[in-house]
Amino acid sequence: MGPAQVLFYMSNSRAGDAAGTWSSGREVAPHLFISRNRHCQRRTPLASSSSSLPPSPAPSVNSETGEGNGFFGSRVSLSMDPQVLIALGLSLVGGFSTSIGGLFVVLSHAPDLKMLGILQGFAAGLMLSISFFDLAHNALNTLGFLKGNVWFFVGALFFASIVNFIPEPSFVSRNEEKEDDGSNKDMTRKHQHQILFSGIITAVGISLHNFPEGMAVFLGSMKGLRVGVNLALAIALHNIPEGVAVALPVYFATRSKWQAFKLATLSGFAEPLGVVFVAYLFPSNLSPEILEGLLGSVGGVMAFLTLHEMLPLAFEYAGHKQAVQAVFVGMALMSASLYFLEISLPEEMSM
Q1: 20 to 30 A from 247, CA-CA: which of 97, 147, 157, 256?
Q2: Where are the stretches annotated Disordered (predicted)?
Q3: How far apart are CA 108 and CA 302, in angstroms?
């Protein structure tokens, strides 16, 4: 689910249960009701004889009228809003399941370089599926074919220009390169750098992918506890292979199980940040079209990095045939994961 779809769900929701209330009928904070226009202007909050919201801590926000200084209405304290705390807890369960994938890597026997190449191809398939079938797909649906493609290729060309003008530093001297006749199975420092860089790429890409998932968990939790729990569990299963894709190259490059586990865990941290962002910090003048376009550009960046960095390593270590097979297995698994995640959402929150 892209942030624009999150906003449209919030704007289309009716007062009461469809707007995101608990089964007990408690109202959602008025800053969650948004009018459906280009700039997401705030709608006047629901009328209520008695509000359970505490006064806003910000001096420039009127907690009675909902008027704010660039944010949606009044903001409530995390410690005073149990609904947001539950949503935050569910997003932690979903997001940090990447740690389980990291544990699979650090607790298992270290594979050889051929297996590393196969798993690099698998991770490349995951990344390509996220890029094309999630980020770029949402941009095309929201912005149209032309604008969506423009945003996607702007991101790809932007990073391609960075790679062209600022090449990666070489960690191997010319003498070391000459001495390496290709028969040595040990990784050179250059290869270690490339593998570590691919792990960082994967972590950043998955973090950006997980951010709108946190927003979806928040809105699902506001609609009902059952919806929030089901969605968090679906995202948790969806994130386990992503943790493997992050931890494996980091472990091979650093030989540090702690570093591999740490980066896999941090890649899931974007999910609870998505909850905090949509609940308290979402700027009222940010166009959902611009936001979806930026995510489309992120898809272009991820696609370029995958093709430029990850696939060459997969071909080198595993061979073309097995690397291509691993890519399609990764794409199929992530596509299936995205599908089951979508059908677990309420109809109003479809991806």
Answers
A1: 157
A2: 44-65
A3: 28
